UniProtKB/TrEMBL annotation, chains A, B:
Organism of this sequence: Drosophila simulans (Fruit fly)
Active site: 154 (proton acceptor)
Family annotation (Gene3D superfamilies): Spermidine synthase, tetramerisation domain (2.30.140.10), Vaccinia Virus protein VP39 (3.40.50.150)
Name under which the protein is recorded: GD18634
PROSITE patterns linked to this entry: PABS_1, PABS_2
Organismal lineage: Eukaryota, Metazoa, Ecdysozoa, Arthropoda, Hexapoda
Amino acid sequence: MDSLNNGWFSELQADLWPGQSFSLKVKEVIHKEKSRFQDIQIVETETYGRCLILDGIIQCTARDEFSYQEMISFLPLCAHPNPKKVLIVGGGDGGVAREVECIRWKSTTVSSSCPSNISRRWPVFANEKLKLTIGDGFDYMKKHKNEFDVIITDSSDPIGPAVSLFQESYYELMKHALKEDGIVCSQGGSFWLDLDYIKKTMSGCKEHFAKVAYAVTSVPSYPCGHIGFVMGSLNKNQDFATPKLGKSEIDAIDLRYYSSEVHSAAFALPRWVQKHFYE
Amino acid sequence: MDSLNNGWFSELQADLWPGQSFSLKVKEVIHKEKSRFQDIQIVETETYGRCLILDGIIQCTARDEFSYQEMISFLPLCAHPNPKKVLIVGGGDGGVAREVECIRWKSTTVSSSCPSNISRRWPVFANEKLKLTIGDGFDYMKKHKNEFDVIITDSSDPIGPAVSLFQESYYELMKHALKEDGIVCSQGGSFWLDLDYIKKTMSGCKEHFAKVAYAVTSVPSYPCGHIGFVMGSLNKNQDFATPKLGKSEIDAIDLRYYSSEVHSAAFALPRWVQKHFYE
C-alpha cells in the first residue's frame, strides 16, 4: 500500500502504529506542499469531508473533528473553577480556538507554530479577544509567567517537531506560565497503542503538577478510533471527573459531543489501563 | 485496494462503511474456506495476533477481542439482579461463553449457528454447564419459552445471514424465551456509521421491552474503532447504567476491560447521539 493509491489515502506509520492502517477514499487533492516544518496535504474525502494531513498523518476531518476539539477544550475549561485566560499551543487548524470562543471566556491567547497560510483562513482567528502568534510555543511560554488559567496543547503525534511537547521539561515550562490552580490538557495518544509512552508522559507531568489524569474520546479517523488527553492540575484537591460548570449551563452551550455525562465518562478507563496508570 | 493485497488485509464494505477501510498486516493465512453460510478466513496478523474474518469483515482479533467479549457479556449479566440461565445466540468464536463461564453462573446454554469446525476447538465448549447447539437461533428460541434470565446475541453485522437478528420480530421472540425481568444484549453497530439503523433497532426492541438502552465500547479492529450494544429489559424499573454486582465482587472476577466504572461510562453517549436516541 502507498499513502495515496488508487484514490485511497492510507495512513501508514510503522513506528507509531505498526501493522495497522486506516484509509479514506479521496475525491480530490485540494492542496499539497512541503513547508519548512512539515509535509502538508488537504484532501476532499468521499465520506469524511475535508481532511488535513501532516507528514502522512490525519490531523482532522470535517466529519469527526468536533469530538476531539470539544473534548480537548471543555475537559480542562470545565474542570477549572473560573478560566479567564487560555493559551492554546499548536491548534493551527483553529478548531480548539473555535471551541474556547464558543463559551466566551474573557480573554483568549493563541500561540501557534503551525503554518499561517492554513490557519489564518479560519474566521475564529478574526476574534479580537484572541491573540494569534506564529512562533515557537516554548519561547512564547518562557516570556509569559503566571499568566494563564488553562493551557491546551493541541499537537501532532510524538514524532518529529512535536516530540518535545510530550516531555517533562514542557510540563515544567507550562507550570511556570500558569496561574495558581492552573490546568493543562494535552493530546496524549491512544492506550491501545502505547501504554508505556502515555505513562511516561504522565510521570513527566506528575513531577510538576499535584494531580494528573488521562481521559479519552472516540474519533474514528484517529489510530484505533480514539484519542486520549493527559491533564495536570496545580490544585492538589482537583477532581478532574466532575465538571465545575453546572449541567444546565453546559447544556446551554449546545455542543455536539461534550456533555456533563461525557466529561465524567471520559475518565473511566479499561481496567488494565487504569491499573497500569494509577496502581 | 483489494481485500488481501501486498500482505495487507483491508476491510472494504461499500454498503456498511463507505469511503473508509481498516487494514491489518498479515503474516500468514492460516485457513480459508467457503462454508454453506459464509466465506471464512483465519489469518495471523503482524500486530493484532490471530484474526477471524467472515465475508470480508473482521470478527475478532487476539489483541482486542476481550473488550467486546467482556462488555457484551458483563453489561447484561451485571445489570440483572440474579442471572442463572444465559442463552448466547451466535458467539461461535467462544469468546462470550468464556466470559459467561468466568463468573460461574449456575447454568449456561449456548445456541450457535456458526461453523462448528471453528467453534468446537475452543476449550470453553467442553464445560459441562454449557450446552452447545449447532442450529438456527430462531428455531431454538421458539422451543424454549420463559427459560432464560439473559440472552446475549453475538452476531455479525446486519448484512447477509445476520439481518434478522436486528429486527423487531427477533426481539418479540427473545421476549418469549426470557423469564420475568429478563435482559437482552445484542451487538448493535457504531453510532458514527448509522444512527438511524441503531434507532430503528432500538424502536423494534422498545415494542417488546419496558426499558431500552445503547452502550458502547472501544475496539480498534472494528469500523470506527468501537462498537455498540442494544439492550432491553422486561423490568420497567431497570437502571442499566448501575451494575447490580458490587464493585469489590466485580473487581474479584479480575477482568481486563470491564469494571464498575467502565460499565456506567459505557452508557454516556455523545450529546448528539443521546438526543437522537432518547429525545
